[in-house]
């Protein structure tokens, strides 16, 4: 893991016992992405997202869900008996109470990661959380939503994920890595859009260009295709 350019911030004090959240699903599986791939993990999927990426595979989380108290979510997470927890969406930060959930999970002793689009401010996220932050490539249809100020907030235990639909997206990603020194800040993950970009092709480009990134596939899709709650 690259060395951090700045020290991680102290844990914030915004935990609220009366917080309410809208939850699409909570389930145990293996982590399919990031440097935590393969680890048994509890996933907490929050409802709602302001983005509409062309390749989104969790559109079912855009609406609906169930209103839950923070304590009920913590109780269900605890019932699975796992150490790793991933808060995801949708876009979890679109719910203000997500911050309280993240802090509560850290306080409870879990190893916590957050999957976020990169379009919303991550500065208030508890410093103990590993932020897995997207940069949206042009092929996503949401490249204009990238909040580049977030990059300066990332530390060595955070990660940047870029999902690529074609060679134009790959060249764009190369430019972002060089322009912002992304690999010197944290791990950079490049993933192909399923059915659009051949995984082997992306891997060959990365090796050819000696790009300082980690290639990844979505392990959960290899194991269970697009089954929900896996």
Give a verbal description of the structure.
It is a single chain. The chain is an alpha/beta fold. It has one domain: TIM Barrel (Alpha-Beta Barrel), CATH 3.20.20. Helix content is 23%, strand content 23%. It contains six helices and nine strands. It has a nine-stranded mixed sheet.
Q: Determine the mean pLDDT.
A: 92
Helix content: 10-25%
Number of helices: 6
CATH topology: TIM Barrel
**Roughly what fraction of the amino acids lie in strands?**
15-25%
SS-derived structural category: alpha/beta
Strand count:
9
Write the topology of this structure.
Blueprint: E1 20-30, E2 40-46, E3 66-69, H1 70-79, E4 84-88, H2 98-107, E5 111-116, E6 130-134, E7 159-164, H3 167-180, H4 182-185, E8 187-192, H5 199-208, E9 214-215, H6 219-224
Parallel strand pairs: 2-4, 4-5, 5-6, 6-7, 7-8, 8-9
Antiparallel strand pairs: 1-2, 1-3
Gist?
This protein has 230 residues and is of the alpha/beta class. It has 6 helices and 9 strands.
List the main descriptive attributes of the protein structure presented here.
alpha/beta; TIM Barrel; 6 helices; nine-stranded mixed beta sheet; disordered N terminus; 9 strands; 230 residues
């Amino acid at each position: 893991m690259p060395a951090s350019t700045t020290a991680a911030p102290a844990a914030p004090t915004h935990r609220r016992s009366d917080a309410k959240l809208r939850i699409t699903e909570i389930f145990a599986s293996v982590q399919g992405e990031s440097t935590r791939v393969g680890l048994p993990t509890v996933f907490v999927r929050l409802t709602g997202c302001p983005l509409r990426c062309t390749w989104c595979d969790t559109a079912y989380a855009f609406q609906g869900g169930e209103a839950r108290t923070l304590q009920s979510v913590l109780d269900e997470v605890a019932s699975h008996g796992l150490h790793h927890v991933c808060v995801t969406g949708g876009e979890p930060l679109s719910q203000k109470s997500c911050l309280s959930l993240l802090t509560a999970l850290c306080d409870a002793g879990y190893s916590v990661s957050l999957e976020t689009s990169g379009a919303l401010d991550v500065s208030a996220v508890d410093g103990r959380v590993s932020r897995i932050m997207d940069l949206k490539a042009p092929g996503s249809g949401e490249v204009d939503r990238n909040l580049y100020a977030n990059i300066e907030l990332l530390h060595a235990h955070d990660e940047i994920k870029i999902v690529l639909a074609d060679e134009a997206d790959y060249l764009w990603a190369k430019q972002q890595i060089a322009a912002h020194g992304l690999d010197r800040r944290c791990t950079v993950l490049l993933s192909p859009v399923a059915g659009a970009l051949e995984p082997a092709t992306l891997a060959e480009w990365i090796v050819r260009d000696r790009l300082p990134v980690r290639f990844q596939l979505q392990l959960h899709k290899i194991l269970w295709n697009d089954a929900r709650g896996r």
